[in-house]
Specification:
The protein folds into three domains: 6-96 and 163-188, Immunoglobulin-like (Sandwich), CATH 2.60.40; 100-154; 297-467, no CATH class. Helices cover 1% and strands 60% of the residues. It is built from one helix and 32 strands. A hairpin with a 5-residue loop joins strand 9 and strand 10. It is elongated. Residues 1-18 and 241-257 have low confidence and may be disordered.
Amino acid sequence: MRTLRIFAIVALCAGAGAAEIPGAETTLDDQTSVAVTAYNNGLALVRDVRALSLPEGEVMLQFMDVAQQIRPETVSLRSTAAPGSVTIFEQNYEYDLISPAKLMEKYVGKQVRLINMDKDIGFTEVTAELLSVNQGPVYKVGDEIFLGHPGNVVLPEIPENLIAKPSLIWTLGNRKTEQTLEATYLTNGISWRADYVITLAKDDASLDVAGWVTMDNQSGATYRDATLKLVAGEVNVVERAFRAKGGMVMRDMAMAADEMPREESFAEYHLYTMPRKTTIKQNQSKQLRLLSGTGVQCAKKYEYRGQAQFYSNRIPPMKNERVGVLLEFRNDKANQLGIPLPAGVMRIYQEDSDGMLQFAGEDRIDHTPKDEDIRLRMGKAFDVIGERVQTDYQRLSNKVHEAEFEITLRNHKESGIIVDVVEPMPGDWTITNQSHPFEKRDAQTAVFSLPVEKDGEVKLTYRVRVRY
C-alpha cells in the first residue's frame, strides 16, 4: 500500500461560498486483487480491491484505471477493512479522455501559440485565436484568417474536465484512515467462447477431445493476476446502447496447463473457475485450457436427407448427391467425459497415412449438459453417392397427396457402411409400400437404415400418402 497524493477540490456550496473538500486518487499500484467473471454475451463482472489511505470525513476519491466500457449504473463500492465505514454521497464516471481532437475542441475561442515550419509565411511563432475545428482548424492571426498552418499548435495548459484515464469519482464520507475498498461493476467488451480440438482415431471408433477457452478483452482496461470465472448459459440482459471500442488483437496462447478448471452449478447456469490467476491485457486474445478426455467412444454415421416439400410437388431427378457424414458420441462419465460443455466449435482432426494430423471438418455445439449425446456434422462423403427419383406423384385432393420415390445409394469406399435415409414427413403421413423397413423416429421423420457393401449399390423404393 502506498500513501496517496492528496489534493484540494473546490466545491461551490449553496449559500456558503467556496469550501475545500480533500481529495485523493488511486491507481493500479494500489490494487491488491482483481476478479473477473465473464459471460457468453460479452459482459463481465469486475471486482477491483485496493488498499489506500484516505482522510477522515468528507473526501473526493478518483478511482482510476477502470474499464472504458464500464456500465456506470452497475457500480458499487464498499469497505472490506471496516464494513459500514464508507458512505457514498455522489458518484460520477469521467470518460472525457485527453486526445488531440478533444484538446483542440476545448480551446475554440481561446488563445493558442502557433510555431511555424514554413519561412515563407512570415512568422516563426505567434499568438493566434482558434476560431473553429470543424473539418479542420481555423485560426485568426491579427487581421488574417489561417485555414490550418504548416507547424505545431502549443496549448498553455490541459483544459478542465479532461483526464488521462477513465475514472470513477466518488464523494465519500470516510470514518477510517487505512482503507481497503472493493469496487464492483459490469463492463462490456470482455467476451469468451469455447473451442474444442477433436483427434479422431484411424478406425473412427474413438477420439480424444481438448477444450479451450478463448478470451477477448476490448473493455479498455488490463486485469493483472486476475481470478477468472466463466459463466456458461443464457443470462438475460436488458438491451442498452454502449460505446463500441476497436483495436488490434494480440494472440496469447497459454497452452500448457495440468490442472483443470473447477466446474459447478450456479443459478440456472454453469460456472467454471480457472485454476490459475492470469493477466488479461487490453486488446488481447488469450487461450486457457478448459477440459480434456481421451479414449472417448464414438461412431461415424452417414446420412442422406430429404426435404418436406418433396411430398406436395413434382420434383426433378436429383443425381450424384453427396451423402452427409456425422460423428456421434455421448457426454457421460463412462465415456471419459461427463461434464457440462459450453457452446462452441468442435474441430475434428485425423491422421493420414504418414501420421500427420489433417483437418476433417467442424461443427458448432450448443450448451450441452452431461449425459447427453453430441452429434457433429463433418461434411460430405467423397465416395458415397445418393440419387433420388420421384417415380409417381398424385394430388388426390387439396389436402391429400401421394408420392413414390426411388433412392439409389452407391458406396465406393474400401469397406461397407450403413447409410441412414432421413425423410422429413409433413402433416399426417402413411407409408403404404416400401422395399426396406423404416423407423418412425418422431411424428415427422421416417428413417431407413440401409447397409451398402464395398463398391455396392442399394435401391430403396417407397410410397407415402400425406394429408395436410
